[in-house]
Amino acid sequence: MKIDTALLDQVTAIAEEAGRAIMTIYARDFGVEEKADKSPLTEADQAAHNLISDRLAPILGGIPILSEEDVEGFCGADDAGRYWLVDPLDGTKEFIKKNGEFTVNIALIEKGRPRLGVVHAPDLARTYIGWPGEGAWRIDADGAHSITVAEDRDGPWRVVGSRSHASPKMTDWLAELGESEMVPMGSSLKLCLVAEGAADVYPRLGPTSLWDTGAAQAVVEGAGGKVLDPRGETLDYSRTDKVLNPHFLAHGRRLTHWPALGE
Prior knowledge:
By secondary structure, the chain is α+β, with helices and mostly antiparallel strands. It folds into 2 domains: 5-146, Fructose-1,6-Bisphosphatase, Chain A, domain 1, CATH 3.30.540; 157-251, D-Maltodextrin-Binding Protein, domain 2 (3-Layer(aba) Sandwich). The chain has helices at 5-26, 43-56, 92-97, 169-177, 189-195, 210-222, and strands at 32-34, 40-42, 65-67, 82-90, 103-110, 113-121, 126-131, 135-140, 143-146, 157-162, 180-185, 201-204, 226-228, 248-251. The strands form 4 sheets. Strands 3-4-5-6-7-8-9 form a 7-stranded mixed sheet, with helices on both faces. Strands 12-14-13 form a 3-stranded antiparallel sheet, covered by helices on one side. It starts with a helix and ends in a 12-residue tail after the last strand.
């Protein structure tokens, strides 16, 4: 399947349009519901889902869409192993807190791997684009800039972590890693910090779902980094019947032996 800049531009425009819809709701009072898994849901999640689903539907001949807000409606990847992977509003807790650290995530998956990804942070006016094998870019008020991971940086490890999902397992992992400093961030922006070299590593020792990581993994890989499961293999998206990811490690800076992630 051919990936080109026209497709990247098209997906980026959809993510940014969804971001504008989200910001309209963000600017006023909004209600918060609770899903069956106790995670929060706002009208912005659903509005972004509806818009993205409508816009993606005709692209690439109408391949299936797996969205956090319509898992039941996903019929599986097409015969070529392709599907869109969408988190219409990643970081709903950050959205509710109004700290700006939430994103729109859209990835194209083929045979279990992200082929392209767009992560748009509407309140921060920032968009990350990843095209594994070709490059990664950040778009902000100053325009588009190519980004790369901080592969050979010296000094304490800059470890990005979640504002909303602190894990007690992290203390032991950091002790084994060595001298480090924490870089707090919400949503899929954590992986994007690794991609642009603002952080060295992001260990995730708690639950995430496929749609939380697919788009940002494309950004990390496009920037020269890796996202690895506990076996040291690239995080995979083939098993859509099992939407939870294993623990994983996103890194740009290199290390011969990483502390164990556990399962």
